[in-house]
């Protein structure tokens, strides 16, 4: 056995603890009834299944006169009817102007109509846990800047477990959960939940300055950093959750391929290299196990099986903090890893070759929007 390979493998495995070391969660609400001038803005398109769940959770969290605005983009289902019968302010989106992408346009219209000093942007597929919004706002009022949250990923169908490596790498690539903590500025924002003061939103130009971006959360986060507005990233366990792609495997593929390649090229180079090395180690651990079995040498089989189990334990440690992933997802991680690599290559092809992506039945052109070089 080549002990040099084992040492390199151990180093690659250890790197996983560097890029996803410490994840911030919200503390329990202190129970104070603070008065907030808050506008909650929800862009919605074909969300008849998700929107009622979010609005119900908001009813359990929100005391009037907080303002809830649902911006309805053209939908083929009952999204509009559901919003209208839930005692919220409903805005039917104007046609998407030339150069805009649908979600930034919907968010921008909601922000212009909002009256609150604090804007809370929520994706329609999110769900607030009990006191979740209070926890978020309690934290927000103690910070000077923007709070953004990646909701805890809940899943019911087996195919949804295939999101495992996308969750790990997306969180690690954000930069703020590394062993260096807040000394590294976040790559951007998490799109599903953003809390920002109106003055800061207007200061950076709001969604208008990222109107053509498919991954507008990273783009607007970059604008905030340039304007020296601090960004604080959290994971939503116990606070806010979502079920990302409940309808089909195709929806999951379209969702993750939509902008993952674009996000990857914006990742800080040192973090990107660490993630690549770690993923390479996960691949080689699997290969070494197969080679060990073929060698019929019990000692080599034991050593490389332990290396593989090391990755299994580490991956599960990562996943259970990000969603209700199953242990068998970590145990058979090569399946999820192969899926990740396939969809990542598909995303690269769509973004940089075809220069189009599809999402919710709409084809989005990326011509003149894809970074060069």
List the helices and strands and how they pair.
Layout: H1 3-19, E1 38-44, H2 51-61, E2 67-72, H3 79-84, E3 89-92, H4 102-113, E4 118-122, E5 126-128, H5 132-141, E6 146-150, E7 152-153, H6 164-173, E8 193-197, H7 198-203, H8 216-226, E9 231-235, E10 240-242, H9 249-257, H10 260-265, H11 269-295, H12 298-319, H13 327-331, H14 333-354, E11 356-359, E12 362-365
Parallel strand pairs: 1-2, 1-4, 2-3, 6-9, 7-10
Antiparallel strand pairs: 4-8, 5-10, 6-8, 11-12
Number of helices: 14
The average pLDDT value, as a whole number, equals 90
Structural class: alpha/beta
Give me the CATH architecture of the largest domain, please. Answer: Alpha-Beta Complex
- The CATH topology of the largest domain corresponds to Spore Coat Polysaccharide Biosynthesis Protein SpsA, Chain A
Features of the shown structure:
Spore Coat Polysaccharide Biosynthesis Protein SpsA, Chain A; 2 domains; globular; single chain; seven-stranded mixed β-sheet; three-stranded mixed β-sheet; 373 residues; alpha/beta
Structure report:
With 373 residues, the chain is an alpha/beta fold. The protein folds into two domains: 3-20 and 267-353, no CATH class; 38-263, Spore Coat Polysaccharide Biosynthesis Protein SpsA, Chain A (Alpha-Beta Complex), CATH 3.90.550. The chain contains 14 helices and twelve strands. A seven-stranded mixed sheet has the order 3-2-1-4-8-6-9, sandwiched between helices. α1 (3-19) packs across α11 (269-295), α1 runs parallel beside α12 and α11 (269-295) runs antiparallel to α12 (298-319). The model has no long low-confidence stretch (mean pLDDT 90).
């Amino acid at each position: 056995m080549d002990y040099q390979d084992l040492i390199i493998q151990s180093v690659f495995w250890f790197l996983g603890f560097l890029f996803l070391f410490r994840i911030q969660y919200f503390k329990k609400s202190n129970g104070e009834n603070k008065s907030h001038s808050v506008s909650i803005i929800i862009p919605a398109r074909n969300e008849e299944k998700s929107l009622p769940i979010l609005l119900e959770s908001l009813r359990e969290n929100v005391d009037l006169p907080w303002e809830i605005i649902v911006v309805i983009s053209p939908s083929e289902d009952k999204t509009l009817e559901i919003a209208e019968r839930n005692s919220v302010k409903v805005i039917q989106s104007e046609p998407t102007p030339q150069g805009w992408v649908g979600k930034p346009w919907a968010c921008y219209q909601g922000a212009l109509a909002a009256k609150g000093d604090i804007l809370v942007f929520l994706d329609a597929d999110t769900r607030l846990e009990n006191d979740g919004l209070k926890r978020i706002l309690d934290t927000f009022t103690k910070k000077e800047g923007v709070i953004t949250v990646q909701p805890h990923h809940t899943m019911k169908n087996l195919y949804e477990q295939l999101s495992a490596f996308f969750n790990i790498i997306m969180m690690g690539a954000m930069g703020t959960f590394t062993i260096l903590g807040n000394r590294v500025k976040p790559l951007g924002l998490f799109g599903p939940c953003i809390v920002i003061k109106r003055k800061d939103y207007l200061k950076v130009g709001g969604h208008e300055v990222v109107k053509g971006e498919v991954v507008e959360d990273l783009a607007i986060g970059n604008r905030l950093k340039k304007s020296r507005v601090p960004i604080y990233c959290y994971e939503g366990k116990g606070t806010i959750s979502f079920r990302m792609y409940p309808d089909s495997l195709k929806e999951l593929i379209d969702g993750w391929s939509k902008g993952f390649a674009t996000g990857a090229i914006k990742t800080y180079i040192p973090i990107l290299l660490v993630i690549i090395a770690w993923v390479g180690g996960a691949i080689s651990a699997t290969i070494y196990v197969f080679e060990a079995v073929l060698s019929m040498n019990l000692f080599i089989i034991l050593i490389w099986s332990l290396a593989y189990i090391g990755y299994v334990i580490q991956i599960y440690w990562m996943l259970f903090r990000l969603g209700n992933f199953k242990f068998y997802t970590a145990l058979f991680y090569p399946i999820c890893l192969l899926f990740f690599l396939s969809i990542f290559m598909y995303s690269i092809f769509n973004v940089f070759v075809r220069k189009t992506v599809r999402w919710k039945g709409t084809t989005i052109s990326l011509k003149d929007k894809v970074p060069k070089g």
